[in-house]
Amino acid sequence: MAAIEKCLVKMGRPKIIMTDPDSAITSTEMDEWFIRNNDIKHIMTRRHAAFAERALRDFKQIMAKKVKVEVKPWTQYLDEVLDRMNNKKQSNDADDDKIYPHKATGFAPKEAAKPENWFEARTNMEIQAKHNRKYPDVKVGDKVKVYRSKGALAKEVVGDYMYHNLKVTSITQSLGQTFYKVETVGKPLLRSDILLINESEEGAEAAEPAAEEEPYMSWERKRIRQREKNKELRAEKAKAAADAKAAVAETKAALKEDKAKEKAAKARPRRPIAG
Fold this sequence. Notes:
Elements: H1 2-11, E1 16-19, H2 28-36, E2 41-44, H3 50-69, H4 78-87, H5 109-112, H6 118-128, E3 143-146, E4 166-174, E5 177-182, E6 194-196, H7 199-207, H8 219-266
């Protein structure tokens, strides 16, 4: 919390803090901190925050280049690396003032954070945004399943969404982002964190009990099971072929016996030989 307070002093108070469900953020102390600072909305995505991961990757790449040129403790490069990231400078020379803006916002991060550039930066981001995934519309009262992050020891058979269907109680918008409040879930959720349940699916679940999930099997285990099934099928086919062959042989023997009896019945009796 002390680190967050220092960031707020240096960077100003944000309207939204977006995090992933890290244990350091989901602690009771952090919940109390957000309650005290209720002017800051806490959005917690249940997946990884993609833009934060990208910023960390950029930080590591720039830091690795610095350390590779001259090996020193990385903390000595910290201010230099952050200045380069915030100002998007490709050179550290004092006389090189060339700025390389971010292709999404059209500004260096430090310039994009200024209030007078907010509208233009946001418009550029909307133009550059890629909407490859299409979500069906969710309305208040709809039933949804909420995404859950698996624990380190969770089995792979455990699904990605909570088992129970929950109702959407409210939908709000802030800074161009839509947030969904779901019953029994404390914090608002993003659209990517919920799965809409169709009425037909809900009715089917109510009409009949949910089917038991098949246990997870590795690719090797699936191959072994398929090999066992094929072996059983071959044994059944061999048995059926043997039974058919035996039936044919039995039928042929019966026919042969009937023909022999008919032949014996038609044969003339021999005359007795006189003594």
